[in-house]
Automatic annotation (TrEMBL), chain A:
Residues 781-873 form the AP5B1 C-terminal domain. The gene is AP5B1. The keyword Cell membrane does not apply. Keywords: Protein transport, Transport. Residues 690-759 form the AP-5 complex subunit beta-1 beta-barrel domain. Coiled coil: none annotated. Residues 262-627 form the AP5B1 middle domain. It comes from Acinonyx jubatus. Residues 35-104 form the AP-5 complex subunit beta-1 N-terminal domain. GO terms for biological process: endosomal transport; protein transport. This is AP-5 complex subunit beta-1.
UniProtKB/TrEMBL annotation, chain B:
PROSITE patterns: MHD. Probably part of the adaptor protein complex 5 (AP-5) a tetramer composed of AP5B1, AP5M1, AP5S1 and AP5Z1. Keywords: Membrane, Protein transport, Transport. Gene3D superfamilies: Mu homology domain, subdomain B. It comes from Acinonyx jubatus (Cheetah). It is a peripheral membrane protein. The keyword Cell inner membrane does not apply. This is AP-5 complex subunit mu-1.
Amino acid sequence: MGPLSRETWAQRLAAFRASPSAFMAGPEGEDLGRDLLSELRSDKLSEQTKVSLLALSLEYPAQLWPDATAAEAAATSLLDTLVLLPPRPSALRRPLLLAATTALVAGDALGPTSEASRRLLPLLLGLASGRDLGRGFGPASEQRPLQATACECLRELESCKPGLLGGCLGLLRGLLGQEGPVQPLSLLLALALRNTLVIQARARARAGLQGLLMAGDTPSGGDPWNWALAEEGDARLQPQAPSWPAAEEECGLAVLEPTPEEARELRAAVAQLLDTSYLLTPVAQAQLLWLLGWALRGLRGQTPVLFKPQLVRLLGTAQLTLLHAVLALKAAFGEALFTAQDEALLLRRLTVAAQHPALPLPAHLFHLHCLLSFPENWPLGPTGEEAAPLLLGPRLCRGLLPSLLHDPMALLARLHLLCLLCAEDEEKEEKGQDWSPRHYLEELLAGLRQRAALDGGPRASATLCFQASYLVVQCLATQPTVLTPLTHGLARLYRARPVLAPHFVDLLDRVGPELGEPLRVALRQEVVSRPGRDEALRWHLQILAEVADGNAQSATLGFLGAAAAHCTDWGLQQALLRVCRALLRAGVGGGLADLLQALARQWEDPDGRDHARLYYILLAHLAGPKLGVALGPSPAAPALASSLVAENQGFAAVLMVQEAPAPIRLSVGPHRAAGPGPVLQLHVEVLEPAYSLELRFRVEGQVYAPLGAVHVPCLCPGRPCRPLLLPLQPRRPAPTRLDVRALYTTPTGLTCHAHLPPLPVNFADLFLPFPQAPEGDKLGFFEELWDSCLPKGAESRLWCPLGPQGLEALVSRHLEPFVVVAQPPTSYHIAIRLPPDSRLLLRLEAAQEDGVPVALRTDDWAVLPLAGDYLRGLSAAV
Amino acid sequence: MIYACVPLVEQTLSPHPPLISISGISQGFELLFGVQDFLSLSQKNDTELNTKLNQLPDLLLQACPFGTLLDANLQNSLDSINFASVTHSQKQPAWKVGTYKGKPQVSISITEKVKSMQYDKQDIADTWQVVGTVTCKCDLEGIMPNVTISLSLPTNGSPLQDILVHPCVTSLDSAILTSSSIDAMDDSAFSGPYKFPLTPPLESFNLCYYTSQVPVPPILGFYQMKEEEIQVKITVNLKLHESVKNNFEFCEAHIPFYNRGPITHVEYKVSFGQLEVFREKSSLVWIIGQKFPKSMEINLSGTVTFGAKSHEKQSFDEICIGGTAYLKLHFRILDYTLTGCYADQHSVQVFASGKPKISTHRKLISSDYYIWNSKAPAPVTYGSLLLSESLCLLSESGKVRNKITSRPMRPSGNSR
């Protein structure tokens, strides 16, 4: 493809960005990467366009250069382009460096044998050191930004090959001390230092840490990069995005025991990094602290006091990421860095930040979360459990309590805290103190319900009310003092606004029995105590279908009986029937039968009438457990929204055949060479009981006559079953596969259908012996057969390799029934009948140590290749 | 427009690791805040917004190459693209792009916002709070000019609390760090001067935020509203505290009527200022003007009649139902802070070549300044309930007291 204009490229890039995978699969996909590389050197395109091409390669390296070879070639081309740039300022140098690095890393081409890697690394290190690399690398004004970019690229390489820059620690320290750009060098050094420490701890090797840290700016002895160390670190040593690990062993640096000199040098390096950390942007400072904190944790000879001078400065800021980094240090060092007073101060700052009017809501939420997961010096509860920190007393919490005026997100987050306080306060309750979190919680929930109860109020306030109720139940499930008023309050809310019924059903489905049980009772009472005639009838029926059980039967039935007259449309009738169904399932008897009979008479709609009658018949004729099965949800069918379908699911499940994964295992047993035709012996095993099993077989390729089904009345796991015999009627003597389907009934009464893995029928499974030859003249009989094969048939000679056991063992194992004349151990004449009417004759004579020459004849030339394969496979099968 | 940031988490996600243990969470927050700031900063029209949106991909490439965030301040990243030709020298902070050349000057402005919830009820305490923001712009030559800015209080000033500073502040007095609204106030509270040694960035920045608990709200008032069929009777009384500077840039009381029809008729009497009627919006605006009268106290009484409610035009308010209603005060006083906090020219020390011109500004703005109808329930926060014996969120009682100064009062947050 020739050079493309800017507009063409813009279109192409837009098409690519719209759907990279579709574009790459299309006709232009193959050329995109190549075109992109060549266009970078074109004089026609502006630098801006080229930068956008490079940006694309940074975003989608894996699509453009999908394998290591392509990535290597791309990186080489990018480096060539870089070298060929004229020595004037250019916006391309930085993105070219980034793109070459990305190509190597993303294509997994980075390594000691990659030519591009061997070019890129010295280039990056040279740029990072601020060395003069010649006129190809731009004017002096560009050196500084290039130096920073080179550091970023090296950092990426180090994160992908941890330990790669283990040999450059001293060099980097030197640069940081001199004129280098502080932020990129600090982050690079911190990462390389962390990785080196972790790898050395893992390998329990101490490859002269001091030496690594002290080495001057010209690394001695060849390449400064350490592929060997990178190899050790390559086994995914640690997440490169820092996080504090949950498991203790994740951060086990304690095994590393640096000498006092090494420890001193390490301290000096860390202090150097920390001293200049205020020159970094807040986000970079945070990264540095996370890296160093978790690198030094538990390392002998390293006191976390080094971090102390930074803390006051960090704690004072409004910067979320810095406060977070302090928390990471807190989690790493605990009491070694933070005394109890420090811990209290940190908590106060968090509390302030969680409610400071000058900070935005997302920051409040994050700080609230930090409070709930605060890494305490001496946590009381099990690790990982959310709890209000011990030192976060009621006084500190006052400003963090929820109120109706808060934004919903803030309200829920603060409510969570309030719940935890209530959980803690359980013992102190009922002492008449003026500050009672439980009392406040009750009032807040009441306020939320009041808002949700407003007629015509927005849906959001109802949602918030139920979210809050759910949260309270999650946190305080064991506290009846909270749950009782909550239950009553919710029941009152339902009375005020029955239109919230779907919210109630959802809540009941989600909460445990602690609230679920009493709330069901309260809602049922709420519904049945009201005459059912108003607009809310459909909501009442929806609630009743959820809560109706064996209790308060007469009241429920009374309500339904009264309501039936008002159920004039199909929807209401179905809703009422759904309640009946729930009652049927709960085992409600007599009164329900009367009601159903009345419905079947009273209603005009035939569907409703039929359903009522059907339920009545089921109730009258089926015993309890069977009724449960009939009405129970089907295991296979997904829940459907349509009420009609949901209604019928239970019956459908019983009446229809269900598709199921096979609980049956079928295998072919040993070959039986007897009888008039070949018979397959099948072994059946089941994982769960199956009744009335029917196995159906279909022959692939129709080489046999259709096979009959096999029936087994009952199969149980662990109870052996007689082998099943499957007679085969070949139309041609050829191996094939049988497609198998099983139809059976489960213990729960469902009929299931399963597709089993296909069964192979081998060539040898078709072998049959000839009828007994005359006693005296076996050889004559064989010779007669032998001669009769030609001229119609075919003859062949082949070498049958023998295993260590020799010819005798091979024959007795595989061909015994078919031997006509035997002169052990060297000579056998074998005659095999192949249904429907073919024969295969073998002469095995003059066996040698490692094989036997076989002469074979058959009257059916199509058998020849099969026989050859069979004989050659015999020795392997011994 | 939705921007999302997905942090890289290289660990098992089941069970969920707590968010606090993942460094990428706060980094992601900062990036999104940064994008938000960049897009909203000095955004005047759609064209400008589109320009900025088009710059975003390049900026993100600059601000987080390989996906690691280097600077959340995207404006800085933009500048560093443009400043590429400037030779940086050693110890240049990463958050400072280039250096300033020109006349040295330092500008400091203190903006205080006062919010309040007033109920005029015996069992619910009124609350108010001051939130201050100190914004600086330091145009100084040199790579790392050192500046110390001090905020001072007059002898009767209210101590600053909950101070959050900009990361460029190099050290902090522990008294500043520990002064917090969580504690009960007493005479020993640190009352300044609040010194902030810093190395300023090039751009204008928020040196610090603070809160404060002033002893009285600047304007204390009550609002009584009674419904009578299709009309309501209202009485408003506002009193400016004598210690407050009586020289407003503007002062207005907005009286909205929610969940009602348009205003058809108003009869009223004001002791001061004028009343404007917004019929369709169903609200009144009492324009008080620049000064309260000598008595410092003003009144409004009247009767408002409403037409039929049309559902389409008026949005539903889920708080102001029935008698629950409020009036909201909007005012601004220039060259004044409620805490008394100020930064004078002598309090600024600059360690850089040349004597800079120092300018300081102050202003007080109202923000969420509500006076609730005392004749009906009103929403309250926890702080308001501390004095009352019965804890209820929507208080039913509303006994009016004649002497408004004897009402229970409490700056929010200060709780015992």
